[in-house]
Amino acid sequence: MKIEEIMTVDVETCKPESTLQEVASKMREINVGSIPICQEGRLVGIVTDRDIVIRGMAEQIPNDAPISEILSAEVITGTAKLTIEEAAELMAAHKIHRLPIVADEHVIGIVSLCDLAAKDVLKTQHAENAIVNISKID
Prior knowledge:
Protein name: CBS domain-containing protein
InterPro entries: CBS_dom, CBS_dom_sf, Diverse_CBS-Domain
Largest sheet: 2 strands, antiparallel
Radius of gyration: 15 Å
Pfam families: CBS
Organism: Planococcus kocurii
Oligomer: single chain
Number of helices: 5
Keywords: CBS domain
């Protein structure tokens, strides 16, 4: 099965100049734990709820600071042609919970571990290993 069959396609994004407060509010509004950050439609980073707490609040970054101050610029991405097993392996190898799916540097979808679980695709050994490896503390 291809990842494009289970990915979420209505992906909300924010701009690098969006504030920490705006991004956190957007996360709450749409009930997600991460937001891709895009400039002119191109993926330039990603921010998680954990980033806002650890890199923002704990470092006393003001709520009105641009999200570009705390985003993760090196984003691991996948393509719509990945199999579910390949996506799970990629997520495990990089210990990430969410995988933006891109085409020509534009976000066309996103897959989370929850998506894999909700679609009942965790029956494969690859996906089970992904969850175990992502959850391990180094």
